[in-house]
Amino acid sequence: MMSNVPWLTTIVLFPILASFLLPILPRDGNRIIRWYTPGICILEFSLITYIFHCHLQFDSQSIQLIETSNWINSIHFHWRLGIDGLSMSLILLTGFITTLATLAAWPITRNTRLFHFPMLVTYSGQIGLFASRDILLFFFMWELELIPVYLLLCLWGGKRRPYSATKFVSYTAGGSIFLLVAALTLSFYGNGVPSSDIQVLMSKSYPIPLEIALYLGFLIAYAVKLPVFPFHTWLPDTHGEAHHSTCMLLAGVLSKMGGYGLIRINLELLIHAHFLFGSWLIMFGAIQIVYASLASMSQRNLKRRIAYSSISHMGFVAIGIGSLTDAGINGAISQMISHGLIGAAPLFLAGTCCDRTHTLLLDELGGIATPMPKLFTMFSAFSLASLALPGMSGFVSELLVFLGVVTNEQYSSLFKAEITVLEATGTVLASIYLLSMLRRMFYGYRLSNESNPYLIDSGPREVFTLTCLFLPILGIGSYPNLILPLRNSEVFSILFSYSNVG
Description:
By secondary structure, this protein is mainly alpha-helical.
């Protein structure tokens, strides 16, 4: 579908162009900055919603709103954008979470211009990545968020924030090397004119050994970002030290870049290799669910416990992508959307709790349900959502992933049984570490208003932010067709490509 208006270029460039105005805004304290960035994000999200409602055809299997222009002719680098249901759903998630993250950053008063600048640049990079139809542009957008996120991690947060920021950059940049080499190989392979157009690359065929090597190169980059065991160790350190608004971006959007890359590049372009590695993805995803759940149980730091819980839930994404079934892939995509909402909320709650209690150690918390009933209610609600309680979005996603594995006739009954046992074990362990976390935080008599005068309950801004996150969780859980039709045509197209493989 073509359009005379460059809608996608507009939503990609608007946040980063708006960020360049931050240094010239009047220096009237932090009041203007506090309103400016959320205002920009609301305008951007409104524009995204308008494009979604008025210009996207849900039943189309083709890429829509295609925009192409030459950028660097010498290396055949084009500004090529386009969307389908998969990319549009993640663009909507990005706009929604980023807007709420700017509200979560409201209390920041130190270097507010410097804080909001990388947040807006990251916003552009994330939308650009989900809309890219050129693999070199995809890599460019992948790298665009690296330095801004490093600044957000390094300058605001806990005492060990420089270490966590450096670890994040080291892991991500290391994975990006593999991504760049694999992307260039795809673009320049063959005797014809080099092309980095993803649509053109889908029609190419590669020798199996080369395809496997390319698949592994991309997989390493995406495994770092998702993250997938054993490339996950940067995430607990980062969540443990970062400001909670930055944690919302990391859990809500950045980790979804890895899952999107697995589907858009590995699943669509490297069909034979993915057919070979699908069972390995399932196996590592299942191991990740149990391992991260066990690791979460041993954490004394509240945000690190939530971080390992996040890693555990992303294991379902790997399983769904590896299942190569309608239900499994739909479940993986639904899990990315669901986790973007469920994963961001507990980290925001943990940050607001730390602002009041001045500690993240579970051993030093306890008994705060009485002075902070709103915080207790919302923490309990999102913990139940993380448990995949029926009626919540996580239940739908994890159920689809489970069905995707057990309905795949290519896997043996023993393999299906083993994966099912590991998934069930992870679910049981999740109830243990989440309910234990609630008990240690909110019950008992350790803290009170008399011992800590900062135990003030959640305010209107925090309640509004969390309500905005909770309503779509309930909506998707109660009526999954709110999001499933967005990707049905995309999943059908992917599975059709695999029907003649094997």
